[in-house]
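[SOLVED] Need 3D model of a two-part complex

Original post:
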Amino acid sequence: MTAFDDGYPPPGRARPMSAADRRDRVLEAGMRLLEWPFAQLQRLIGLRRMPWVFVLPNMALFTIFVFVPVLLAIGYAFTGGTELLLWNRPFVGLENFSRLLSCGSYLDPASCELDLFWTAVFNTAWYTAFNATGTLVVALVTALVLNRLTRGKAFFRAIFFYPVLLSPVVVALVWKWFLARNGLLNAVFADLMGQRTIFLLEVLWSRFWVVYVSIWFHMGFYTLIILAGLQAIPRDIYEAALIDGTSRWRQFWRLTLPLLMPNLLVVLVLLLIRSVQVFDEAWVLTDGGGPGTSNTFLVQFIYETAFATDVRLYGLASAASVLMGLALLVLTLVQLWLGKKAEN
Amino acid sequence: MLGFLTRTRGKSRMDVTDILAWAWLILGTLVIAIPIGWAFLSSFKPEAEINSFPPTLLPRAAQELVIEGYDDPLPAYAWTDEQGQTRTVGLVRRIGLKATVVDPESPGERLSVDAGSIVKQTAIRPAWSNYTEPLERFAFLTYLKNSVFVTTVATILTLVLNSMAAFALSKYRFRGSTTIFVLMLSTLMLPLSVIMVPAFMVVVGLNLADNLWGVIFSTVATPTGVFLLRQYMLTIPDDLIEAARVDAASEFRIYWRIILPLSAPALAVLAIFSVIWRWNDFLWPLIVLSSPENYTLQLGLNAFQGQFTVQWHYILSMTVVALLPVTLIFLFLQRYITEGVASSGVK
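Solution:
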C-alpha cells in the first residue's frame, strides 16, 4: 500500500466506468433532458410567472372536473327533458323541485308524487341517526380502551383500522356471504333458533345489518381521530385528579368527556355528513336497496334516476342532488363553526 | 406472556376496567377478523362444498379412487362390514338403500352393501380452480388489468400534478395563490354525489365516457393531496431554494432535484392513499364506464355477483383478489397509514 492509495484513482489514469456509473450518467442525461424545456420556458416568461406553470395542470383538471360541474349542477336542476347536454335542455324553472316536494303529508312517503324520493329521505334519516350514534359510541369506547393500553396499542389500532381500507364492494360481499343462507351466521343461528333466516330479505334484519356493516367498515377511522384527541389531553390533569382521589368514572365524566367534547362534536358532524351520502356498500349488500325499498337511500335515488333507468331524468336527479347538497352545506358550516370553536 | 397481558398502568393488579377493556379488544378483533377469515377460507372451497349446510370450516373435497377397469375415478367411501371392519371402497352406484361398491384390492368383484354402512370420504384440499377459472372463463383478467392500469396511472399523475401545485402554493407568493388554495380546500368536503350529473356531462363532452381515461383524469387533481404535500413542503427551509438560485438552477430543477426528494415521506403517504382510493373506487367508475370490457375489478365483481348469484366460489375468490393488494400495503406500510390519518384526518 502506498501513501497515495486513498481510494481515488492515481492521477493521469482514468478509472474504468462501472455499471452504476453508467446508470447514473444515463439518469443524469434523462433528467437534464426533462429540465431543458422548463428552463427554456422560464427564460421566456420569467421567474415570476413560473409558479403558474406549476399550478396550472392541477388547476386545469380541477376546474374541468370539479368547479365546472359545481356551477352546472344548479343549471341542471332547473331544466327538464332527457338530453344530457345542458344547452339542449329546456328550462323548466322550479318544476323539478316542486315535483320532489309535492306531498299530501310529509310524514307519509306514500302520499307524495315521488314516493321513492321520500322513502329514500326517510331511510337516509333513520340510517344517519343510527349509524352516526352507533359509530360514535363504538369508536369512542375503542379509542378510550386503546388510549389506556401501555403495550400492543399499535397492534390493536391497526386491527381496528384495517376494514377502513377495504373497498365497499369487498366489504359488502364478505358480509353478504357471512349472512347468506349457507353462511356462518346461519350455522350458529339455526342451532339456537331451530331455523335458518335469510337476513337480507327481511326488512328489520336487513336494516340492522346495513347499519352494523357500516359501523364495522368505518369505525376505525373515527377511532383514530378520537384517539388523537384523547392523546392531546395533557397528562398532568389526570395526575391532579389522582392526588384528589377521584374515581375512574368521575374522571371520565368530569375530565375526559368535557375535554374531548369539541373533538367529539366535530367527529359527529363528520359522521352525519358521511352518513347522508351512504351508497356503495349498502347498495351492493342489499342488491340495490332491497328488500323492496327498505334500504333505498338518497344517493341511490339520484344515481338511479339519472343513470340506471331507460328514461334518464337528469334534471330531477340534479334537483335531488341540490337539496342534498344544501343539507350537507349546512352540516359543513356547522362543522367549520365547531372546529373554530374547538381551536379557541 | 401473562406478565405482558396483565400489565396495567402503574398498578399491580388488574381491576374491573382492565378486564372490560381487554374483553372489548378481543371481541372487537374477533368481530373484525371472523367475517374476513370466513370469506377467505370459503374462497378455497369447491362448488359442491360451498353450497352444503351446515358449512365446514376448512375447504374439503370428495376423495376419489382410481380403480382398474373403471374409466372415471370413483368417489371414495369408508365401508364398515358386518364384522365391524372398515375399509376404503369406491362407489359405483347407489339405488335406494343398497349401494354397489368396489374394493380396490379386488377390482373385479362388485359388492352390494347397505347404503347406511358407507360414509363419504373427504380430504382437506383447497380448490385453486376457484382462482384460475374466473380469470380464464370470465373477464376477470380484463377487470384486473383495467384496475391495475387505472390505479398505477392515476397514482403517478396524482403525485406529479399535486406535488407541482403544492410546490407553487408553498414556495411562492403570487397573486391568486391564496384564492386557489381556499377554493381547493372548500371542495374538500364536496361529495361526488352532489355533482354526479354535471361531472358525467363533462366526461361525455370530452368524449371520455366509457373510457378508463375518463375515470383517471377526473380523480387525479385531489385537493387532499395538494393540501397534504403543501403542508409538508412548508416545513422545508427556503434557504435551500435561495442557495440553488444563486447557483443558477432553474425553478423546475429546484422542484425536481431539491423539493421532490425532500418531500419523499409525504409523497409516500399520498402514494399509499392514492393507490387505495383508486383501487377501491366504485360509484364514479360505475357512472363513467358502461361496457364490461372497461370495467374495473370492483365493477366487474359487482356485476358478476348480481348476475351469477349462486357462484359463490368464484365471487369469494375474486373478492379475495380484490382485497389482497390493499391488505399487503397495509401489512407493510401500516404505520405510515395510521399516522397519516391521525395527523391529517385524511381518509
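Edit: The beta strands of chain B are 60-62, 64-65, 74-80, 86-95, 98-102, 110-114, 118-120, 122-124.
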